[in-house]
C-alpha cells in the first residue's frame, strides 16, 4: 500500500532531483542523511513504478519513490 508523503527536495546544477527531508502525515519531519542510490524501479510492496531513492535516514535505509510528481513510501504492515 502506498503512503504518500511530503518531501523537501532540490535540483542540483546538473538537473538531478535530490530529496532533502521527508514529512510524514502525522507532522514528523526527518532529514535525509544521504542518498545512496537512484534508479527507475518498481515498488513490489505498494505497486507502481518511478524513481526509487535509496536513502539513509537516522542510520536506517529506506526507499522513497517519485512517481508522477508525487512522493510515496511503502506503508509498513
What would your notes on this structure say?
With 77 residues, the protein is mainly beta. The chain is built from no helices and seven strands. It has strands spanning 2-11, 17-23, 29-31, 34-42, 49-57, 60-67, 70-74. It is globular and about 35 Å long. The mean pLDDT is 93.
* Structural domain count: 1
For the largest sheet, list the strands in their spatial order: 3-2-1-7-6-5-4
Compute the average pLDDT.
Answer: 93
Q: Spans with pLDDT under 50 lasting ≥5 residues?
A: none
* Shape descriptor: globular
Helices and strands, in N-to-C order? EEEEEEE
What structural category arises from helix and sheet content?
mainly beta
Distance between the termini: 9 Å
> Count the helices. How many?
0
Helix fraction by DSSP (H/I, runs of at least 4): under 10%
Total beta strand runs: 7
Q: What's the alpha carbon Rg, rounded to whole Å?
A: 12 Å
How large is the share of residues in beta strands? over 45%
Sketch the major β-sheet: 7 strands, antiparallel
Quick summary:
The protein contains no helices and seven strands. The protein has strands spanning 2-11, 17-23, 29-31, 34-42, 49-57, 60-67, 70-74.
Descriptors:
single chain; 77 residues; mainly beta; 7-stranded antiparallel β-sheet; globular
Strands, helices and their partners?
Layout: E1 2-11, E2 17-23, E3 29-31, E4 34-42, E5 49-57, E6 60-67, E7 70-74
Antiparallel strand pairs: 1-2, 1-7, 2-3, 4-5, 5-6, 6-7
Amino acid at each position: 500500500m502506498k503512503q504518500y508523503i511530503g518531501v523537501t527536495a532540490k535540483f542540483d546544477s546538473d538537473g538531478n532531483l535530490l530529496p532533502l527531508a521527508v514529512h510524514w502525515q502525522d507532522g514528523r519531519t526527518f532529514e535525509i542523511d544521504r542518498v545512496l542510490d537512484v534508479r527507475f524501479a518498481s515498488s513490489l510492496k505498494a505497486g507502481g513504478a518511478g524513481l526509487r531513492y535509496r536513502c539513509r535516514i537516522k542510520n536506517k535505509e529506506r526507499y522513497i519513490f517519485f512517481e508522477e510528481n508525487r512522493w510515496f513510501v511503502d506503508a509498513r504492515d
